[in-house]
Amino acid sequence: MITQKTLTLFFFLLLSFYTFTSSATIEAEPAFENPIDRKLLGQDKERTLSHFRFYWQDIVGGPNATSIPIVQPIPKFNTSSSFGLVRVIDNALTIGPNLTSKVIGRAHGFYVSVSETELDLLMVESFVFYEGRYNGSTIDIVGRNVALNKVREIPVVGGSGVFRFAKGYAELRTLKFDAASGDTLVQYDVFVSHR
C-alpha cells in the first residue's frame, strides 16, 4: 500500500525532475546592451572640433520656394506666432549671405510654430553637405528657435559620414527678413565635435 509519505516524495521527485529538465532547455536571452570595440566604430581616433559658417536661405514665396507649408496655423491662433504652422524645407546653404553665393549643401527637414504667444519654432534639420571631404556627410540639429531673439542656440544631436557621433551646437542670427514675402536669411555658426 502507498502511504501519504511515499506519494508526497514521488510528486516531489517528479516535480524536481520536471523543473530541472525544463530549466536546462531554456536558452539564455541575449543581453539588451553589449560592450563594443570602439575601433569598429572609428572611435579610436581623437575627436576634431570644427566651426562651420554658412547661410540658410529660407524662400517661402514664389515659384522657387524652398519652404512649403504642410499644415496651416490653427485659425484660433492665427496671430503673429502662427501657432500650429508646419513647414517642410529644402533650403540652400550658401558660403556667403547672397542668394547667388555658392551652394555648399542643403537643409532638409521641417520647422513647427510651437508657441501661442511668440514666434517660437521647433527646428528639425539635417544639413547635407556637397563640398570636399564633407560631400555626402550630414550634421543633424533639433531644438527650440525663438526667432525674434538676436542669437539662438540649437543642439547638434548627431550626423553621418565624417560627422558620425557628432555633438555640439549651432548659433543662429537672422540677418534679413522680408516681411512682404516671408523670405529669411539666417547665419548659422555650427560648432561640432566629430571623429
Automatic annotation (TrEMBL):
Residues making up the signal peptide according to the UniProt record: 1-23
Record's GO cellular component terms: apoplast
Coiled-coil residues: none
Highest rank taxon of the organism: Eukaryota
Keyword field: Apoplast, Secreted, Signal
Main location: secreted
Gene3D superfamilies assigned: Allene oxide cyclase-like
Localisation per UniProt entry: Secreted, Extracellular space, Apoplast
The keyword Signal belongs to this UniProt entry's keyword annotation: yes
GO biological process, one term: phenylpropanoid biosynthetic process
Pfam family, one: Dirigent
Entry's family note: Belongs to the plant dirigent protein family.
Assembly information from the UniProt record: Homodimer.
Function field: Dirigent proteins impart stereoselectivity on the phenoxy radical-coupling reaction, yielding optically active lignans from two molecules of coniferyl alcohol in the biosynthesis of lignans, flavonolignans, and alkaloids and thus plays a central role in plant secondary metabolism.
Name under which the protein is recorded: Dirigent protein
Source organism of the structure: Arachis hypogaea (Peanut)
Lineage, highest ranks first: Eukaryota, Viridiplantae, Streptophyta, Embryophyta, Tracheophyta
